[in-house]
Amino acid sequence: MTLSLVALQLLNGVEQGLLLFLVASGLTLVFGVLGVLNFAHGSFYMLGAYLAFWLAERTGSLLFAVLLGVPLMLLFGFLVERLAVARLYQRDHLSQVLLTYGLVLLFNELSRLLFGNDVHPVATPALLSGSFKLGEVQSWPAYRLFTSLSCLVIALLLRYVILGTRFGMRLRAGASNAEMLEVLGVDVRKLFARVFSAGVALAALAGMLAAPLTTVYPGMGESVLVISFVVVVIGGIGSVRGAFFGALLVGIADTFGKVLVPSVSSAVVYAVMAAVLIWRPRGLFGAPAEAR
Amino acid sequence: MAEPILELRGLSRRFGALRAVDKVTLAFERGRVHAVIGPNGAGKSTLLNLLSGELRADGGSVHFRGEDVTRAPPDRLSRLGIGRSFQTATVLEGLTCEETLRLAAQSCLRSSMRFFRPSDRYPEVNARAERALGECRMTARRSARAKDLSYGEQRQLEIGMVLATSPQLLLLDEPLAGLGHDEALAVVDLLRAIAVEHTLVLVEHDMDAVFSLAAAVTVLVNGKVLETGTPAQIRASPAVREAYLGEEEP
Amino acid sequence: MTARQRVQALLCAGALALLAVAAVGDRFWLQLFGKAMITCIFAISLDLLVGYAGLVSLAHAAFFGLSAYALAGLTNRLQLVNPLLTLPLALAAAALAALCIGWLSLRAAGVYFIMVTLAFTQMLFYLFSEAPWFGGSDGLYLSQKPLLSILGRPLLDLGNRTAAYLFIFAALVLSYFFLSRLLRAPFGRVLAGIRGNEQRTRALGFSTARYKLTAFVIAGAVAGLAGYLDAALYGFVNPAELGWRQSGLLLMTVLLGGRGTLYGPILGAFLLTFLEHYGARLTDHSSALIGAVVILVVLFLPRGVAGLVERGGRG
Amino acid sequence: MPLSRRSLLGVTGAVAASSLLPRPARSASLAKIRIGLLLPYSGTYAALGHNITDAMKLAAHEHGDKLGGREIEWVAVDDESDPAKAPANVNKLVVGEKVDILTGPVHSGVAMAMMQIVREEQTLTLVTNAGAQAVTGALCAPHVFRTSFSNWQTSYPCADVMLKAGHKKVALVFWNYGFGQESMAAFKEGFLKGGGAIVKEFPVPFPSTEFQANLSELASLKPDAVFVFFAGAGAAKFVKDYAAAGLREKIPLYGSGFLTEGVLAAQGPAAEGIQTTLHYAEALPSAANKKFREAFKKATTREADVYAVAGYDTVNLLSVALGKVKGDTAARKELIAALETARIESPRGPFRFSRAHNPVQDIYLREVKGGQQRVVSVALKDAEDPAVGCALVK
User: Fold this and answer.
1) Which among B8, B248, D94, D167 could bridge D224 via Cys, Cβ 3.0 to 4.6 Å?
2) Distance CA B120, CA B99 (A)
3) Where is A268: in which H helix or E strand?
4) What angle do helix axes C60-78 and C27-47 make, rounded to 10 degrees?
5) What is the pLDDT of residues D310-342, one digit of tens each?
C-alpha cells in the first residue's frame, strides 16, 4: 500500500468516524445524564432520515428539511421521554433495554406504515453536488466533506455547551452525580426531558445529514445502533469527548479492517472494543471504578 | 499492653489532592473495643474501607495478627477473620433473616461451590446461623424478609451477618447512625454483649455511646491521628476540644 | 392454596399435558411443543444469570448456537452420531466458550458487561456467517440425527419425532430440577446474595467474581443443551441462532414470564410460542404487537406473568 | 381487482381457529386446494414478499380463482426472513396447516431450513425466490421445484459478457453472505475458464453499506472492470458511492441483475451505464410481459418486478400441472410429471424445468440508459444450472 493510499484510507476512516460521532454523542449524553440505555436511538436516526426524505421532497430543499425536521424531532423526543422513558429512571438496565427495544419494534412498524418498504433516494443539495479530485482516479464528493465539517462544527458546539454554559454545568453535574443536582436546586425532570430531546435531535440530525449518502430504507437504524453502542462503550459511557475519539477509532479500525483483513473485517471493530474494555473496563474516558 | 490484633503502619490514601487518610499508624489490641471518632470528613470511613479491603492504600501497610494484608481483597480479609458492617445497612433484598444469616454462616464451609445439597441441610451452617440469630436478637423475626425490617432491626441483622462469619475482629461503621433513641439503646446493648467475646473497631458519631463502650479512643482529624487514649484522657484533651469546638459536645 | 402450591400444581399439570401430547402423537404439536420446551431450557438457563446472579448477558445465544454447530460439526465431519459422545462434547464446547467469554466480560460491570457480551456475540455471529468453513450465512444440515444404538439395535433415535420429543421433555425436567436444586444449595445462596448486594456478599468472604463466572459457565452449558436439542430436532443450524437478536428475544421471554423464578421463564416461553403462532395471523404488523406487549409488561408487570400467579394467592 | 393482504389474512384467521385440533383427512377432490405461502411480510424483504404474493393471486384470478377445478385457500405465514424462526414457521404450514403445496421463501437461509422439513414430509414445494445452489443441487428432491433462478444463473453469464467486452483483469465486490459468495463463485468459474484474471476480491460484511475504504483501494488498483453483487439498500448505496467517487466514468461496472432491481429510482443518474445479467427485464418486449405488467399495475398500483414474475409463473405452472391431474393433489407422481413437462410462456420468456427442477431460461444482458433498464441482448440462451451434486441429474 502506498503512503498516499494510507492517507486516503485514514481520511475515509475519519469521515466515517465523524458521522458516527454525531449519532453516538446523543446516545452517550442520554446514558450519562439519565442513566438510560436507549436501544431506540437508532430508530431516531432512521426517523430523521425518513423525515429528511419526506420534507425534502415537499420543500425541495434538504436545508429546509433539516430546519423543519430538527425541531419536530425535538418535540417528538420530548413526548417519548414524558410518555415512556421517564418511567424508567428508577428501573434496572434490563427493563430499559427491553422497553426501548419495544420502542424499536413500534417505530419500525410506524415508518413502514408511513413510508412503505422501498428504498428512497434523497437528492444531494445542488450546491454540494460537486467533487474534489484525489489522486488520478478517485475523487471525493463535496457532500462528504460538508457532512464531515458539519460534524466537526457540531462537536465544537457541543464542547462549548458542555464546558461553557450553565446548562452544560448541570449536565456534567448530572453525569457525575445525580444527587448533586437536587442539592443545586435543579429541576431534574426538566433537565432530563431536555437532554433526552437533545439526544433524539442529534440522532435525527445525523440521519438527515446521512440520508443523501445512504439513501433511506427500513431497518437502517439498527446497524447504526449497534456500532454507536460500540463507540460509546469504547469512549466511556457518558463522555462526549470519549464518544468523539471512540468514533474516530471505530471509523479508522473499520476502514483498515476492510483493507487489511477483508474476510473477517466485520469482527475487527468488535475485537477492538473487547480489547479496549479488557484494558480499561470503563472505556477510554470513563470514570475509573473506585472499589476493587 | 496486650498484643495488637491489627496494626496500621503509615497507612495513606489520597483522592486527587485530598489526603483522606494521611500516614496513620495505629494498633488495635485483642479483646478491646477501640473507637475511632472525628469530625465529618476526618477520614474515618476511608480508614475503615482501607482496613476491610474495599479501598486500596496508596502507602503504608496493614498487618493482621502479624501478617501483611495491605493488598488483600475484602473476601480474603473476611475469611481471615476481619468482619465488617456497613454504614447504611445493606440487607440482601429478597432474603429472609434466617436465609441471610445462613448465607453468612456458609463462610464456615471450605467452599460454597456446592451445587446439590440444599444449604439448610448442612448442620454446621445451621448451627452457626442459629447462634448468630440469637446473638443479634432476631430469633423472633427469622422468617421476616430483610427489606420489611425496621431500621433498627436491619442494623441488628447487619451485625448478625458479621457475627455469623465468626470473625476475630469486627469493624463497625457507624452502627447507630440514623437510629431513634430506643433503637440506639438496643444496639448499644447488643454491642456491649458482643464485646465480651470479640475485638471491636467502632467508627461512630454518637459520643455517649462511644464513651460508654470503648476502652480506647482514637481521634482522627484531616486524615491524621490527633490523639489516642482512654475515654477519660480524650475527654480531658485540649487538642480534641479544640478540634470539636462548636461542632459537637466532647 | 399458597403461591408455592399453586405454582407446583401448575407445573405438574403442565408436565402431564406435555406428556399427553406425546401420547396423542400429533406431529405438529410434537414439533411446536418440542420447540417450546427447548426455549424453556434456554430461558431458565438465562434466568440463572439475569434473575439470580443479576447478570444481563446478550451472549447467551452464542452458547446455544455454538453447541448446535458443534453437533453439526461432529456429525458431518467426524461421522459421530452417538449422543453419549456428541452431547457431552457439545456441552463442553458451550461451557468452554462461556468460560472464555465470561472471564473477559466479567471484568466489566453493569452496562459495560451488557455491551461486552454484545460485542462477543457479534464477533461470533460474523465468524459463522462469513467464514467459509462453517457453512456460511445459509446454514448447515446435519447429515444424520443423533442415534444411540447398542449391538446394532437402536435405543434412542432423535430422528423419531416422539422419541425426540420425550428426550427434550426429559432434558427440560432434568434441567429444571438441576437448577432449582442448585439455587437452594450453598452456591445458589451465594448468587442470591450477589443479586441482593454484591459488595456485602463479598465482605462476607465470598469471592463473588468466581461465583459469577461459575454461574456464567453453568448457564452457558445448559444453553448448550438447548442448542444441541434444537439442532437435533430440526437437523439444521444457522448463524442467525447465534445473533444478539436471539439473546434479546430470550431476555424478553424471561422478563415476560418473570425473572428470578424458574417457572416464570417457562410460562414466558409457552406464552411467546402461542403469541407468535396465533398473533401472526391477527395482524400484518405482528412485530408492533409484540413491541407493544413488551412495553406494557415492562411498565405495568415488572415481575412478569409469574407475578400475576403469585399475587393471585393473596388477592 | 385490488388485492390486499388483509383479505388474505381474513381467510387465514378463520383457518387458525379450525386448526386448533388435528385436522381429519379430507377427500382431495371436494375441498379447496391449500397453498402455503412462506414469505416475508415484515422486515428488510417485506416488499419482495408482498410482490410475490400479489402476483400469485393475480395469476390465480386470471384462472378464475381455481386450480385444476378446485378453489384455492391461501395460507400465509410471515417468515420475517429469519432463519432462526424458519423451522417453526415451515412446521406450522406443512405439518400444522397441512398445506397441499408450499411456496416461498425469499431468504436462502429460510429456504435451507425449509428444505430439511419438506424433504422429511415430502411436501410438494415450489421455491419462488431463494437462489441458493443447494435447493436444486445437493439437496434437490423430486417434489421440490424452483420457479425463480439459481444464483449461478444470474452471475455466470456475465463472465462471458465482460470477456467479450475486452475486460481481462476484473475486481469483485460483494456482500459476504451466501447469495454474494455463490454469485461470485459462479462468475469466477466462467471468467477464469475464459482466460480472465481476478485482480482482487472485496468481501463486504452483510448488511454493511460502508464502501468508501473498498472504493479507494479499487481506484488505486485500476482494474479493467468491476463485477459486483449487492441488492436492495446496499445496491442503491454502492452504485451512488461508486459514481460519487468518480469511478463510474473510468472503470465500467457490471453486476448480477439484482444490483439495479427495484432501486433504479433511488440510484438515479449514478446507475447510468451499468450492465447486469438477469433472467428478466422490465423492458422485455414480449406480449406476455406487457400483459402481465399492465395487469399487475392495475391490481396493485405498483410496478411489477422480477420477484413478482416468479410468483406469477408459480401459479401459472401449477395451473397447467393441476389441470392435467384434474386437481387431484393425491396423484403425486402424475402431478410431479406434469410439472416437469410443463411449458409456459412467462413474462421472462419461454420457461421449462431442468432435470434438477430449476428453470431453464434465457439470461438477458441489461443496461441502464436514460434512467431506464434496456435489454441489450440475450447473454445466455437456455441457461441451465449445472446442478452440482443433484441426485436427479444422472
Assistant:
1) D167
2) 9
3) helix A265-279
4) 130
5) 999 999 999 999 999 999 999 999 999 999 999
Chains that touch C (3 or more CB pairs under 8 A): A, B, D
Cβ <8 Å between C137 and D41: no
In angstroms, what separates the C-alpha of A288 from chain B's closest C-alpha? 12
Please report, as a single letter, which amino acid is at residue A60: G
Alpha carbon separation from B132 to A193, B100, B129, B185, D96 (Å, rounded): 49, 11, 5, 20, 60
* Measured distance CA(C230)–CA(C68) in Å, rounded: 7
pLDDT tens digits, one per residue of D40-92: 987 778 889 999 999 999 999 999 999 999 999 999 998 888 888 898 899 88
Q: Write the CB contacts of A234 (distance below 8 Å, at least 6 apart in sequence).
A: A242, A246, A249, A250, A272, A273, A276, A277, A283, A284
Domains defined along chain D, listed by start = 5-149+287-360 (3.40.50.2300), 152-278 (3.40.50.2300)
Q: What is the pLDDT of residue A178?
A: 66
Asked if ipTM goes beyond 0.90, one says: no
In the structure grid, which three cell numbers stand for residue C4, read together?
A: 408455592
Q: How far is C138 from chain D (nearest CA, A)?
A: 4
Q: Which residue has the higher pLDDT, D74 or A1?
A: D74
Q: How is residue B136 annotated by DSSP?
A: T
**Mean pLDDT score, D195-207:** 92
**Beta pairing, strands D275-278 & D253-256:** parallel
CATH 1.10.10, applies to A3-279: no
Q: What is the pTM of this model?
A: 0.89
Domain B4-244: give its CATH code.
3.40.50.300
